[in-house]
Amino acid sequence: MRQTNNDRKEVNKSWKKWLFPPVWIILLLTVVCAAALVTVFIKHLETHPVAYVVYVVSFYTISVLSLAFGTTFPRELKRVKEWFFGTKYGNQYMTDVVFKNQLSLYATLAVNLLYVAVNTVMYFLYDSMWFVILAVYYGILALMRFLLLRYKAKHEIGSNRMGELHRAVLCSSILLLVNIVLSGAVLMILYAEKGFFYHGILIYVVALYTFYITVYAIVNVVKYRKYNSPVMLTAKIIALSAALVSMLSLETAMLSEFGAEMAETEKRVLIAATGGGVSVAVVLMSSFMIVRSVKEMKAIRNTENKE
């Protein structure tokens, strides 16, 4: 019995060595596998025998990283949260939903302005109207976020209900312009063979990020409804609209990368259906905010007149 227990302990130790090798080995494998995968995709060696060896080693490396990440991340995350919560601005970010929403608006505004600048430069370099459409799209998003930030700079959330409602109607009306730009983008994709292209492993990273921001945007729309703030809810609806358009761009990239055997008619049907669905969703969200805000403004005016 003692021998059996010892054997089991040795087996367990061997498995742990394989599953939890030294850190330097994990780091080395990560770098080597990343370089090997990039080489495989760039050189189009996906079916080469060596590629399958790379896939196996990469799978092992990802498994080891996942196990190590799963066992250490919760503990380290708890420590980081405790430290972050103990700082002045960290505590405010974790406890003040208005401050958190404002920081998010600043960050997304900066990103939108960067995209406008990049696409404007790309237009002058390549003389393509595709980049003009993208620049206008991100410009509209930046305008709406600027209007919300400007309102927040002058008024505290909840202090001026009529002001929030007016700003929500204005931004929602501007959001309807996104459909015009979106229609132009869909037409360019369908008939001018324009769209997004992500080569190699980058497309998987973009796909993961796009699904994340879409789910996160949906959760935020549901979450921020309970705060009963038209300005904060409008900010999250804008984010959701941007995420939906990102899903459309991801679809075009996926069709370009993996749809070589698909008929052009089928591709156009898929893109048109997705583009139409995104457009309808944006119209519905914008219309909902406009109708709801206008209805509440009328109710407030009627109450004030009676008084």
Number of strands: 0
- What share of residues are in beta strands? under 5%
Order of helices and strands: HHHHHHHHHHH
Uncertain segments are none
Give the overall shape, derived from the CA principal axes.
globular
Q: Write down the Rg.
A: 25 Å
How many strands, which pairing sense, and closed or not: the largest β-sheet? Answer: none
Number of helices: 11
Alpha-carbon distance between the two ends: 90 Å
Structural class: mainly alpha
Summarize the structure.
This protein has helices at residues 2-19, 23-42, 49-86, 88-95, 97-126, 129-154, 161-175, 177-191, 202-225, 230-258, 264-306.
Give an overview in words:
The protein is an all-alpha fold and 307 residues long. Helix content is 87%, strand content 0%. The chain contains eleven helices and no strands. It has helices at residues 2-19, 23-42, 49-86, 88-95, 97-126, 129-154, 161-175, 177-191, 202-225, 230-258, 264-306. Helix 7 packs antiparallel against helix 11 (264-306), helix 8 packs antiparallel against helix 11 and helix 9 (202-225) runs antiparallel to helix 10. The chain starts with a helix and ends with a helix. The mean pLDDT is 79.
Any chance you could write out the topology, listing elements then pairs?
Elements: H1 2-19, H2 23-42, H3 49-86, H4 88-95, H5 97-126, H6 129-154, H7 161-175, H8 177-191, H9 202-225, H10 230-258, H11 264-306
Helix pairs in contact: 2-3, 5-6, 6-7, 6-8, 6-10, 7-10, 7-11, 8-11, 9-10, 10-11
